[in-house]
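Researcher: Sequence recovery benchmark, item below. Answer with residues only.
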């Protein structure tokens, strides 16, 4: 499967694709890529090499409708924020969809992430409430509003507000409002990253020709992608909206984002090295690079790697703040597919 993943990377970078498709079971490949949330890239690759699959086409059509709805929502909210003079940046999927992926459907996402300053929380809540959003969770099509305790807990102990949701026809819209750039986890862990002020990051935003909302500049965007990958992988069970007792597998789409961003966008490496040193987040950068190098070689960011730090890829924190080792290694996770409580393993 490693060869297949690298072919998808080459496809996204418009490089020549060497060799034939390494696996012949189309349905297993689709299941694998859907599980890792990159079925849109697979669809583009299949179109390129002349493979048609009705199931994959239907899945991607649903993704296109959802993605386009989120892009419209991002533009609408950005306009409201700018009217009120609120500093903001659209993060992750919605921004990357327009920045590094050629087609809207290549980058699947199911929420809209926005970074703001903590001082603007009340204004942002008012804007979103006026647009019909409430703090809550939608499960099986039913909305459960968050309790006051849940809302306060999330605000006090994490980097974001309790999720904003809105049911609108066939879509359930989710908005994550981040008022901190990153998160060290509510635990007794040994994390020692110095918080990057949101104000500092939001003073370094940019706009794309094909997307009118603010996004972070390249260096802050890269740092945020690495920090988010680390936090989602290591601290996921500490999130008040997370219901599992163990962390999810690390999904390939988050790693693919960093690979393509590092290769497509020009990064000021000297500036990044100073930022990493200043904010003591080298272990989060190492974590991302350790994951990437299992899949592919990436010279563009190799100088950011600190060889003196331990490899944290296969560790996570439980709700009590205990540091535990994963039952499955990342390598097993990324090259395997769950189905009916079993695992289909592919060769590397």
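Model:
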């Amino acid at each position: 499967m490693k060869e297949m993943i690298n072919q998808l990377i080459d496809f996204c970078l418009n490089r020549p694709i060497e060799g034939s498709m390494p696996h012949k079971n189309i349905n297993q490949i689709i299941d694998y890529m859907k599980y890792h949330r990159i079925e849109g890239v697979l669809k583009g690759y299949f179109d390129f090499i002349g493979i048609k699959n009705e199931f994959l086409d239907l899945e991607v059509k649903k993704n296109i409708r959802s993605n386009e709805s989120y892009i419209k929502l991002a533009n609408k909210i950005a306009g409201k924020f700018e009217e009120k003079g609120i500093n903001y940046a659209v993060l992750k999927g919605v921004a990357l969809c327009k920045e590094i992926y050629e087609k809207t459907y290549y980058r699947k996402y199911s929420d809209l992430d926005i970074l703001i300053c903590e001082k603007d929380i009340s204004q942002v809540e008012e804007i979103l409430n006026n647009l019909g959003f409430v703090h809550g969770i939608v499960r099986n099509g039913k909305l459960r509003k968050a309790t006051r305790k849940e809302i306060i807990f999330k605000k006090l102990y994490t980097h974001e507000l309790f999720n904003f949701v809105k049911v609108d026809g066939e879509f359930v819209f989710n908005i994550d409002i981040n008022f901190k750039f990153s998160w060290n986890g509510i635990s007794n862990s040994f994390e020692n990253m110095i918080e990057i002020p949101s104000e500092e990051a939001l003073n370094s935003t940019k706009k794309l020709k094909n997307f009118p909302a603010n996004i972070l500049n390249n260096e802050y965007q890269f740092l945020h992608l690495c920090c988010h990958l680390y936090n989602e992988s290591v601290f996921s069970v500490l999130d008040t909206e997370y219901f599992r007792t163990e962390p999810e597998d690390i999904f390939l789409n988050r790693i693919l984002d960093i690979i393509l961003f590092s290769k497509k966008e020009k990064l000021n490496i000297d500036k990044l090295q100073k930022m990493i040193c200043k904010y003591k987040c080298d272990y989060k950068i190492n974590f991302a690079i350790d994951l990437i190098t299992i899949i592919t070689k990436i010279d563009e960011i190799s100088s950011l790697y600190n060889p003196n730090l331990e490899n944290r890829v296969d560790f996570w924190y439980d709700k009590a703040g205990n540091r535990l080792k994963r039952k499955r290694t990342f390598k097993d996770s990324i090259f395997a597919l769950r189905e009916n409580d079993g695992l289909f393993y592919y060769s590397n």
